[in-house]
Amino acid sequence: MKRATATIRDVAREADVSVASASRALNGHANVTPATRDRVIAAANKLAYVPHLGARSLTMARTNTIGVVLPDLFGEFFSEVIRGIDRAAHAVGLQLLLSNMHGDASETTQAIRAMRGRVDGLLLMSPGIDADFLTAHLPAGLPTVVLGSRIEGEGHSSIAIDNEGGARAMVAHLVACGYRRIAMISGPEGNGDSDGRCAGFRAAVADLLGDHDPVVLPGDFSEDAGYAAGAAILADRRGIDAVFAGNDMMAVGCMAALSAAGIAVPNGIAVAGFDDVPIARYVQPPLTTMQVHIAEMGTRAFETLMALIASPDAPPPSPQTLEPELVVRRSTRLSG
Asked: Domain limits of the chain?
């Protein structure tokens, strides 16, 4: 038997508050105490309450708005993702509602909650989420596409990057160029992209160079982290002749540190990145990287979401994996 759809009155009764208080809590109004908000949210989750979606199913009305939840709204990578989504949304006359969960997976729930009843579908990028998280926190019936994580399980659609394969390809390129002591600047621990790239790096240097204990410097995908890693390499070179950064922005920061110390790239130390953000082709020397086609990933995610919205009863497509492409520029080419 199909479960009856919970109403706002059911949530208010479960939380022992007025309907008005329940509504204010769910809509993020400031004049609600934290204890009341938590109680109402717990009740809504328990009852699988979805604001407005039930009423919209009767009237067939839509918001003509797509929700986008990203770890950050700043930086070239996320700007490119948004550009690809916005380009596709504008072409069909839809608006975007953006939310930033600051790279903290624990804040994803709040960001999703803020979208309830306000969007026709959701594009979600959050580190560390899985099918169980989506089942527990997504409003029932809300079409959703996850970017950057491979989600297995019925009812979910995802688009991810082959980070491990991309890292292996980059190490193979560096080895083919003659580099033998390759260090890596990793991204945040627990981040799916970072973990995959680090795993691919470790496997490749072990297979191709017999290096089972490579130098891996901590990073967080920022230019500052790349600069700090470059300074650490200068302080203790350990014979390092090439650096593979887990993303382009850390590679740019590392190149800046090397340049400030008078170390030529690539003749002193080669540097490579991952993503191919726009700035990668304009730094000096231009950066060798793994091209992800970031904007196109955003566009593909949007188109996949539109298909889910148009055919809500159709099974979601299988998880999609994007294969990054090696782009060789002067930051890894040794000159005469």
From this structure: 163-292+326-332
